[in-house]
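User: Please look over both lines:
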Amino acid sequence: MAFIILMVVRNAVPLPELLLTFVNDTSRFFLVIAISALGVKTSLEKLFAPGVKGLALITVDTLFLLGQAIVFAHVFLL
């Protein structure tokens, strides 16, 4: 709900560029912290428990997501 409210405010109210830059940088910081927290909670023992098939699935999934990110970057950012 907060996301929708902030989205409406962002699009309806002209905000100073300095504030937008600060909010954007703060948002990225908290996203990195959240991803780091997930990494810290990851147990390598549980990650490798399913064996080779599980590791292969994780590898394929990671490569698929990487491919999507590269395509997205080339289509929308470059």
Summary: The longest helix spans residues 52-77.
